[in-house]
Predict the 3D structure of the following.
Amino acid sequence: MGGKSLASQISEKMVELSSGVLFLLFGIMSLLSGPEGQL
């Protein structure tokens, strides 16, 4: 898939939103798992 065709289908705000949600999700998961890093 080319970047141009991908960019025409997905808006910039959608990418920002999904990356923000993923960031928060991984942050919460790491907080819950603790320093050992076991989920």
Observations:
- Residues 12-33 form the longest helix (22 residues).
